[in-house]
Write a structure and sequence with these properties.
It contains 7 helices and 25 strands. With 426 residues, the chain is an alpha+beta fold. It has 2 domains: 110 residues, no CATH class; 282 residues, Distorted Sandwich (Beta-galactosidase, Chain A, domain 5), CATH 2.70.98.
Length: 426
């Protein structure tokens, strides 16, 4: 059976197997009835004459006729119902050793590009990328193919989506952080115990720390003294446990509050990770490494934080010699890749008591947070049922209603020293 390949993507021409690529914008794909007659003819003629040709559907679908759910449903149903059309994602093409994106997208349906095959590399059109973005992109191409790498690709393309200059500049502050995810992807491909602070994972010129055993992987950021990521691996596969809000959205606060000079703190509503006291109390921490733990001591405050590996989690101690009031947050992002599956919002469940909060998917992965201090847990789906009704200004939607999908958030407020056990349940 002849097969032509349809690639859903952003921009670009590609060279593929020394054959032609037809690239066209999303506005040329469809009309008000669904897939356009011209596009159907193109699929058929390509399959019959040059079956190895790539057909690149590009541009921002949300700003085209495909932004209409009824139209996009007809278009993608048509493609899905024709098995002789092989579907490739932009990730498939970017990670292929036989594909190479070269230049901006055209609206011309009939312009073929003939090129030689590139056996050695697959690289993005880089003329508008910063040096850090180029490093991240190249690291993405080399990263093991697993769920964490897939998540990193999704974040990369979300941060690179065309938008306003202000939001684009804000997103740039988070591109380098994808390197931390890629470190986790490397570990997940070959889980080995690691205790080190010798690697600059996010290309900011400063080293981050990795605490890992055969089942748990964590990153500790000395600049700010927090835990941006926690992953685990077991018989059911790879699981994310903790993750920052920028992993899902950037620009949470009012633009008038953004300060682009502050890097990761540019958007004050962002939660960068676990056990970060406050963006206003930002501090750099000195590091003491031990066999399976590390201790962070504030250089400008009296705060001390220790992180110790457990066979299936982490043990964290927070100490403050001045016993000043502090508010620690722990953003739980259990298996965020499941949010692209049907009915995913109903899968997450919680159980709470004054000193514990359990969150996750019972049949897949859950995490149990227990503390010597009282804790409060809120979740994105606490008011899930309310989404089926018109917005009611008199209804208390709770703070969890405004969390990015699919987060839950732990809050610990205290003026005393306290500890937290993070137990990951298979």
């Amino acid at each position: 059976m002849y097969k032509n390949k349809v690639v859903g993507g952003e921009y670009g021409y590609a060279k593929y197997n020394s054959c032609s690529l037809l690239a066209f914008s999303s506005n040329r794909v469809a009309d008000t009835t669904g897939i356009s007659l011209g596009c159907k003819k193109l699929f058929l003629s390509t399959a019959l004459t040059t079956p190895t040709t790539l057909l690149l559907l590009g541009g921002d679908f949300s700003n085209s006729i495909l932004g209409d759910p009824a139209v996009s449903l007809e278009v993608f149903d048509y493609i899905n119902e024709h098995p002789w059309i092989r579907k490739l994602s932009i990730y498939d093409m970017m990670t292929s050793n036989e594909a190479q994106l070269l230049s901006p997208l055209t609206d011309d349906l009939d312009q073929p590009i003939i090129g030689e095959i590139s056996q050695q590399s697959s690289r993005f059109y880089k003329t508008d990328l910063t040096s850090i973005q180029i490093k991240i992109f190249e690291a993405l191409l080399q990263s093991p193919k697993n769920l964490i790498t897939n998540q990193a690709w999704q974040i990369y393309y979300a941060l690179k989506q065309p938008t306003t200059p202000e939001l684009s500049s804000l997103r740039e502050n988070y591109i380098g952080q994808i390197g931390q995810l890629l470190a986790a992807a490397e570990w997940a491909d070959n889980p080995t115990p690691t205790v080190t602070c010798d690697n600059d994972l996010d290309y900011d010129g400063k080293n981050e720390c990795i605490l890992a055993n055969n089942h748990v992987f964590s990153i500790i950021e000395p600049e700010g003294g927090y835990l941006p990521f926690l992953f685990s691996i077991n018989d059911r596969g790879i699981h994310q446990i903790i993750g920052p809000t920028w992993e899902f959205t950037v620009g949470l606060s009012d633009p008038s509050n953004w300060d682009l000079s502050l890097g990761l703190r540019s958007d004050p509503a962002q939660i960068l990770g676990g056990f970060l006291n406050s963006l206003n109390d930002w501090d750099n921490y000195s590091i003491t490494l031990q066999s399976n733990s590390l201790i962070l001591d504030g250089m400008e405050t009296t705060m001390s934080k220790s992180f110790s590996l457990l066979p299936n989690g982490l043990y964290v101690e927070i100490r403050d010699l001045n016993h000043s009031s502090n508010n620690s947050l722990i953003p739980l992002a259990v298996d965020p890749w499941l949010r692209f599956t049907p009915g995913w919002g109903d899968l997450y469940t919680s159980a709470k008591s004054p000193f514990s909060f359990q969150w996750g998917i019972t049949s897949v992965e859950t995490v149990d947070i227990r503390s010597t201090n009282q804790i409060n847990g809120i979740a994105f789906n606490a008011t899930h049922a309310a989404l089926f009704y018109p917005e009611d200004p008199n209804y208390d939607y709770s703070r969890g209603h405004y969390l990015p999908f699919p987060l839950a958030l732990i809050e610990i407020s205290s003026t005393e020293n306290y500890s937290v056990d993070i137990t990951i349940n298979p």
